[in-house]
Every structure is written in C-alpha cells, then in structure tokens.
Specification:
Blueprint (H helix, E strand, L loop, with lengths): L11 H11 L17 H16 L9 E9 L4 E9 L2 H8 L4 H18 L3 E9 L7 H6 L5
Parallel strand pairs: 2-3
Antiparallel strand pairs: 1-2
Helix pairs in contact: 2-4
C-alpha cells in the first residue's frame, strides 16, 4: 500500500513505477495527436450538452440529446447544425427562452468552446425539437448515439 497525494504529488513515482513495470510493451493504439477514437462530432455534441447542463434547471438536461445533423469544414470555418431533442414542448420553450434569449446564450457559449476545441472559426446553428418519449424508443436512442 502506498499513500499518495494528488494535490502535492507526494509518492507519485513510488505509486506509478510498479504499475509501469507490469504493463506490456507494444505499439501505441492511436497516433500521438489523437485524443480519442471517437469522432469530432461526438465532442461537439457533448460541448453543446455541457452548456445545457450549465444553463438549464431541474430535469431538462437529463431529458435532452444533441444530434449533429451537419458538420461541414469549409475553407474559412466549420458549419455545424445541431438538433437539441427534448421530451415536451415546455422543455423546448425553456431552452429557447424569452425572445430566444436562452438558445442565443447557449449557442454563443457552445460556439466559443467548440472553436477552442477545433482550433478554427465555427458557424453554429441550433434547433430545439420535441420528440415525446425519445428515451423509450430504441430507434431514437440509436440515432442519437445511445444504442449499440
């Protein structure tokens, strides 16, 4: 047993060395600049969902899915069109906000993070769509990236 501290780094090497000795040698699974085996579209949808979690209240974030409908890399920017799927019309109204204030804020914050992630300018277009009981539908779950 080795006591370590993530805050100060105490015993970090003492903890890591026995683990490294047990790992087999081999070629890397991914190229050096790869952060994941998942496509950029996945991370873009998650960045949008993150903003929903930060801005929306109550159960709304847990009843949403984000579907990237268009992801086109043009010469000067990347155009992204995404649907935010919710269960009820009331959830849609909350996400859009009064005179579109919530969806505008959501889009601005998401676009800023997506531009940092992709390291290029982004044109982001968001739509909120109501699909009652989408979480109970295997076809919808698969379409939104939750099914196998």
């Amino acid at each position: 047993m080795v006591a370590i501290s993530a805050l100060t780094g105490i015993n970090y090497k003492k903890f890591l060395q026995p683990i490294l000795e047990l790992l087999p040698d081999g070629e890397p699974f991914y190229e050096d600049d790869s952060i994941s085996d998942l496509p950029e579209k996945f991370f873009v949808s998650e960045l949008i969902r993150e903003k929903i979690y930060e801005l929306a209240q109550e159960e709304i974030p847990y009843h949403t899915a984000v579907l990237i409908r268009e992801f086109k890399e043009k010469q000067t920017l990347t155009k992204i069109v995404a649907d935010i799927i919710v269960h009820r019309e009331t959830q849609k109204m909350i996400l859009i906000g009064e005179k579109g204030s919530m969806i505008k804020k959501l889009g601005t914050l998401a676009r800023t993070d997506i531009e940092k992630f992709l390291d290029r300018k982004v044109f982001l277009e968001l739509f909120v769509k109501v699909k009652p009981k989408w979480r109970d539908n295997d076809l919808h779950l698969k379409e939104y990236g939750y099914g196998a």
